[in-house]
């Protein structure tokens, strides 16, 4: 709306300004005269006022009803007074209309609000994104044992459904037949797929992986875990408090100041000269000058440049208020999986025995795991590639469910698997391997063994969710800014403690369910802390929305992105530090611009009122408009300097 009205009003303003007597005098030209040309300026000004000024009058009514005068009332006051006076001046001798000032004031205010609204977050689509996680249909088992496809909405408690590999679970339930692993990271935050067998519980929206499951439905509709998360997101969104912008506060004060100065001006001039047209001109000048163009652009210009600068540095701003609040953060809470860590298994340690070197162990292990899509196999292959190790050629590959794999390498049999494999083969580990496995276990790392000839454990690999190197840099930088760092995770206490100690995190919360993540944020807020939440999963959505500043990882789920106030495109925790630096720099620019904008009034209002009239200095409406334009130019130049701010960690 603001964009359309701005362009239309601007086009109509060109002839108004061109035919303005003041502009002609300033630039030394004479506009062509033809029948009706004298009416071009007033007629088009009326159209611009009716079309471009009405939105401000409408919004001013809301401020008036709430008894909270702000920018809208100040703008409406200025354009209404300018409009009425200019129309009246057509019929009052000795007066000078300033239609050109009226239309440029409307144009610039429309521009300011167009720029401002572009940076305002639209209605959040978080709930829609959550709903997309639910499948539309389910395969329900009939009494004959066959399956029928039915809408998920028709499922009842007690129904049994078939969930094939790769399909989403349609409702909360209990496994009655089948074994598989289920990816629950979107709901629970657990970084590893969770094994399921008869008696195990499953949650709606999670994804089945490598086996078929028959599930008895225990919860449907509004009772499911996912529906509960949706309610939390909705409640958290509604609990957001309204923050009044700096410019509105300044405009509110200026509104009262303008009325006060106008009243004093009227009384003083009536006492000094009696009631005449000069008194009216002084009062009108005060009220029009009270609304500088610069104040209308002071914050929107900074917001626009802030948004552009943030995008160039990998940050997308969806909520300007959250961006402003970021400068005051004293606690940043990170989700672990996929945020501080890569959310995937990686080899973090290797132990070998005898004449087996690490290189040989990786050659054999990567060869045996060459064709497997299991996450552990991928981790071993990736580690081998990082070390430039070539895979061995293998044959006779076999997979033993729940135990591991077996293959032949150079005519010899090798096995790869976990503790169950060692127990099945009845092999004793060497002291070095056993000590390595014990230490890895204390750090909640998964240990995989390489067995040679079914008789000797020759190597052990420790795997864990790999910590991002950027996480260390980010936490160190946040500590340097006196900001406390917390961590939330659905993983076990051991995993959380190990990651927390390695990164120097101030406090952590382990084995946290979605609703608990939301309450952990509230807990910190109840202690008087301003909290930012950084996450990437569905389970983070309620906490992202509840936090004072929700920061979503751009490579995460759509629902996390829709719930966040700010999106980090590059999945880099260091961008949280850059965000805070940019927020502080932007706030400084806003303050500086407001000083320039209101400083103009401090100087111009007394002159407009005629305080220096006794010595022959009197500010006319036209000269006041020139000062107003200079103020606007200064504000614009100052705002542009924000684009050069240094956001490096050393800045």
From TrEMBL:
Membrane-traversing stretches: 38-60, 72-92, 98-115, 250-271, 283-305, 594-613, 619-639
Enzyme class name: hydrolase
Protein location: Cell membrane
Keywords attached to this entry: ATP-binding, Cell membrane, Hydrolase, Ion transport, Magnesium, Membrane, Metal-binding, Nucleotide-binding, Phosphoprotein, Translocase, Transmembrane, Transmembrane helix, Transport
Alphabetized InterPro entries for the sequence: ATPase_P-typ_cyto_dom_N, ATPase_P-typ_P_site, ATPase_P-typ_TM_dom_sf, ATPase_P-typ_transduc_dom_A_sf, ATPase_P-type_domA, HAD-like_sf, HAD_sf, P-typ_ATPase_IB
Residue intervals of the P-type ATPase A domain: 133-233
GO cellular component: plasma membrane
Region (Disordered): 173-201
NCBIfam families per record: ATPase-IB1_Cu, ATPase-IB_hvy, ATPase_P-type
Record's protein name: Copper-translocating P-type ATPase
